[in-house]
Design goal:
Layout lengths: L1 H19 L2 H21 L4 H33 L2 H6 L5 H29 L9 H23 L8 H21 L5 H9 L2 H14 L7 H21 L8
Helix pairs in contact: 1-5, 2-3, 2-5, 3-5, 3-6, 3-7, 3-9, 6-9, 6-10, 7-8, 7-9, 9-10
């Protein structure tokens, strides 16, 4: 166990170095949500009500970007370049490898959430989160859910060249629908049902309650249940469909 933890820690340190040495990955998976935050904050300056809704929405988007998007890209790249196959042939335990990868995603998410919360406090006048336990629970459940979905979705991507098309075909519509329904009371009923059934909108609701209203965990148990169900779905297909081999030669 001690050796596995040590190897997992080394893998985590390697993942951190690899992440920052890849400028495109660092931009799209880490800096892009912060650019949305800065742009949205500049447009909505002076409108405190809208700023209160912007912060949890960007926080939820950050969780999805650093887990679902990042892992879908990385796993397909490593699989199609034969890296996963070579890792499988080394003495490195599977749990240590995936532990390091998951810890890297969690670190990026924690940094994103910390930056968004600080920006809300210092720049946008929102104040500190009103319910820290609810914030922590929703972030953790969201990370597990979207990490599993990212790994599972990687199985559906046939090659690395098509990764951007596949990921954006999911990421962008989910973000658009979830943001629109969250911010608009006049959203069509069918669109609202779709958003409520997806994991991002319930995550935004939970973070909004934790950061802005402080309404408590009990007010968002249905949102937590939706995220948890997606997490179970993602874990099942992530484990069942995972392959160390290239999908084609």
């Amino acid at each position: 166990m001690a050796d596995a933890l040590t190897l997992g820690w080394r893998q985590y340190r390697l993942e951190r170095r690899m992440f920052w040495r890849n400028p495109s990955a660092a931009f799209f998976n880490f800096l892009l949500p912060l650019l949305f935050l800065g742009g949205g904050g500049a447009i909505l300056a002076g409108n405190q009500h809208e700023l209160n809704r912007l912060i949890p929405a960007i926080a939820a988007m950050s969780v999805m970007s650093t887990t679902f998007t990042a892992l879908a890209y990385n796993i397909v790249f490593l699989r199609e370049r034969g890296v996963l196959k070579r890792i499988r042939g080394t003495p490195l335990p599977t749990g240590s490898y995936f532990g390091g990868v998951a810890a890297n995603a969690v670190t990026n998410t924690a940094l994103q959430i910390a930056i968004v919360v600080l920006a809300g406090k210092l720049i946008f006048g929102i104040g500190w989160p009103r319910d820290w336990p609810e914030l922590i629970v929703f972030v953790l459940v969201g990370v597990v859910c979207l990490t599993a979905l990212g790994v599972a979705f990687a199985h559906a991507i046939p090659n690395f060249e098509s990764t951007a098309a596949y990921v954006n075909a999911v990421f962008l519509p989910v973000v658009f629908i979830s943001f629109y329904v969250f911010d608009s009371k006049s959203a069509p009923g069918f669109l609202r049902q779709i958003a409520e059934a997806l994991p991002l909108k319930p995550l935004i609701d939970g973070l909004y309650g934790a950061i802005v209203t402080g309404s408590g965990m009990g007010s968002h148990l249905d949102a937590l249940a939706v995220i948890a169900l997606w997490g179970v779905f993602g874990l099942f297909f992530a484990v069942r469909g995972f392959s160390w081999e290239q999908s084609r030669t």
